[in-house]
Design brief:
Largest sheet: 3 strands, antiparallel
Radius of gyration: 17 Å
Number of domains: 1
CATH topology: GIY-YIG endonuclease
CATH superfamily: GIY-YIG endonuclease
Number of helices: 3
CATH architecture: 3-Layer(aba) Sandwich
Shape: elongated
């Protein structure tokens, strides 16, 4: 049981990468920029939503459907640091 508590504590202490990322269409140079507290999860979520046609940004979804995933780049514009606790 101690191991389980230890793992829970480790999970609570984890700090995912925070920052600002950009999805850019190579075809028309349109950009979608967003900040998030968890870059990896948000980027994964957007790839999933766009791949399934369910992204809330209609313009981005339209371009994704029209040009395909291969015509987009994902760039991390800035990694943000946590405040010292």
């Amino acid at each position: 049981m101690d191991r389980k508590k230890e793992l829970k504590e480790q999970y609570r202490q984890m700090r995912p990468d925070m920052g600002v990322f950009m999805l850019r269409s190579k075809t028309n140079n349109m950009c979608y920029i967003e900040g998030t507290q968890d870059l990896k999860s948000r980027i994964n979520r957007y790839k999933f939503q766009l791949g399934h046609g369910s992204h809330p940004c209609r313009g981005l979804q339209k371009d994704w459907n029209q040009f395909g995933a291969g015509n987009f780049t994902i760039e991390i514009l800035e990694n943000l640091k946590y405040d010292k606790d």
